[in-house]
């Protein structure tokens, strides 16, 4: 998953050449990835995704795809490589965090490493305990509830979220109640505060 044509095409060509026995698909957005996962998700063994996509920010796409592809391994490929992002990725179960600035050969070799069950990280850092706890709780949300939480974290009202998701306000209200229970918070403000460090918007 990468919306940058040159980066995506270069990685695709290199992976295809190095792993001729594997099928490879490239998508440009989180929406395309979710549709691909819906149709052929049982075959997906590894997902490589950019941290910043046109229709997903933070770890949104990762969380949504982990729900659809529980058997797949995940690797992040990003121009943003810092201790906080890497620690969060570890906490969210990502198996590799790769820099776009790295040689293509390094990225290609990481594919084989992850498929062999290895982990590949550029920074020696431990997983963030708060992120581990949040990931454990948010993993209990349905796909729809995760989208509602995204709206709550963005400060949107139920009416706005309903319009975005083509739902009734009553349905959104029910989702919010379920989210509060699963995240073990008392109100939507607490839910937004809990989610903000992990679903916050990332500047390109």
From TrEMBL:
InterPro entries: CheY-like_superfamily, EvgA-like, NreC/VraR/RcsB-like_REC, Sig_transdc_resp-reg_C-effctor, Sig_transdc_resp-reg_receiver, Tscrpt_reg_LuxR_C. SUPFAM superfamilies: C-terminal effector domain of the bipartite response regulators, CheY-like. Residues 1-115 form the Response regulatory domain. Residues 135-199 form the HTH luxR-type domain. The modification 4-aspartylphosphate is found at residue 50. Pfam families: GerE, Response_reg. The keyword Phosphoprotein applies. Keywords: DNA-binding, Phosphoprotein. This is Response regulator transcription factor.
